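User: My instructor asked us to take a sequence, write out its structure as tokens, and then describe one feature of it. I'm not sure where to start. Here is the sequence I was given:
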Amino acid sequence: MGAAADDAASVRAAVMRLSFGAAAEERRDAAGEVARLARADERTKRLLPELGVLPPLLDMLGGAGPGARLAAAGALLELARGTHRNKVRIVQAGLLKKLPVVADDRDVCRSQELALLLLSISSLANTDFPLRTTELLPFLVATLGATDVPPDAKLPCLAALRNLSAKLEHARDVASSGAVRALLPLSLEPKTSEPALAVLGELAAAAGREAMEAEGEAVPRALLEAMTRHGSARCQERATYLAMVLAHGSRALRRAMRRLGVVQALLEVSLLSSSPLAQRRAAIILRWFKEDGPQSRTTRAHSGPRVEGVAEATSCRDDDVAGEAKGCRDTTVDEIVRRSLDRNMKSILRRATASVDLTNVKLLVTSSSSKSLPC
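Assistant: Let's start with the prediction itself. The structure tokens for your sequence are:
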């Protein structure tokens, strides 16, 4: 009974200081106390929004000093964690309308607390709640495109984008928001590569192929970089999935991939990747590239009388040309495979022989007495 009474008194005191505190430091301390209470007890977490803590916390997030804003973001994060009802109440209280104001504060908009809060709110996109992505997307895209935001703050934003991209109606908004341009540089960074490629794959499968075509050769270049990262099987799986979606639906992107050397990278993945899934996907795409050649036969209109001998000779020549073209393509693929194997075998042999101490081997050979074997 005593502990419960103390908790109730702490809740009342925190709510009073948060709502009526005169100094910014007092409200900041009250926000920290709200975060502690929400983290400590689920029942208290559900009770606090009913006691009116959300409006003052959102006011702090939008208009107080940097320290108070961070404290408010932390308190809102603790209130939102694991409770659908609290997330809905936070959005209804006006969180998304505060984001343009928060974007002007470099310390807050680049903090991990706010990024995690938006990740928690983005999970509402997979429910029946009508989440307005047009208010959330500009902040997420700007954060991902900023060069001074640490990766720890970008990772929750990437996860939030993936939540939004999972639903078709939101995926169109994500694709048209400029997210593809912000995601491509992140797909080249080791820490953010896998989640960025995952979001790009979701967008390409849903509604974002046109946005990727608009980026020109940037998408194939990112794929090439990700597929040659043999130390990360997950990146290769994400990259080959994205390549499958794009190569299957866009002839222009297939041409760009071929021109930039993606076929060579796919061959290496199909032969050397540690992921069986990436190997299978790469093999499928290679078959598409092999079949994506000029047709061996073309139908032409002929206005004059048909001469059998000429027609047969022309048909024979067409068959010869088609056979030569097919043989040339097969030879090219075989040559690429052979070169890839030769290059990788040389690399393997170089690594294997680097650790051998040739001096010790020579000393061992010269110092040991050898006898000829009997015939």
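For the description part of your assignment, you could build on this observation: Residues 7-131 form a domain with the Leucine-rich Repeat Variant fold (CATH 1.25.10.10). Try explaining in your own words what that tells you about the chain.
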